[in-house]
Amino acid sequence: MFIKKSSLSGGYQYIIAGLGNPDKKYENTRHNSGFMAVDAIAEKYGVDLKKLKYKSYCDSITIEDKKVLLMKPMTYMNNSGQALVEAMNFYKIPPERCVIIFDDISLDVGKMRIRQKGSDGGQKGMRSIIYLSGSDQFPRIKIGVGKKPDEWDLADWVLSKFSADELKIIADVDKNAIEAAELIVCGDITKAMNKFN
Known about the structure:
This protein is of the alpha/beta class. It has one domain (about 5-195): Rossmann fold (3-Layer(aba) Sandwich), CATH 3.40.50.1470. Helix content is about 35%, strand content about 20%. Strands 1, 2, 3, 4, 5, 6, 7 and 8 form an eight-stranded mixed sheet that branches. The radius of gyration is 15 Å and the shape is globular. The model is unreliable at about 1-5 (pLDDT under 50).
């Protein structure tokens, strides 16, 4: 893929948003898998995600000839829709051109699943996005964080940190997430699903 930095100015055709929680205590937690994937995209494209706009840390990248707004909403997971919908409305970007990356407890660590649209699947960040936008037509990349052990409370599980071994696996998954996001932006979600699902 052709890599190019852009300045944060406008005229975006796509949004790629990773979901998570902003506080330092949430770094490397399962619920922050979306943040981690977007950080990996930012690193590949040489941007730093330090510009605060639309209740998000964001920056601009170009994938092929498409100008993309890269976002990490700072609204906390359960209010992710506030940030995303604000940016969507400003740039008039439809849901079909917003790629959302987030954690999925139904998938093992190391697994990834791409969907073209659908329900929130119980993920509260996606629930907020679907509710506030009025649409479920968002392409999404779901990153497996492991099924909740029986003895764990769900909130405690998703807010628990990955082990050192799991972080190595996630780093590899993030490479796949970058490629999948690039394929989706380039209009080839079917190829992405065939390759990574």
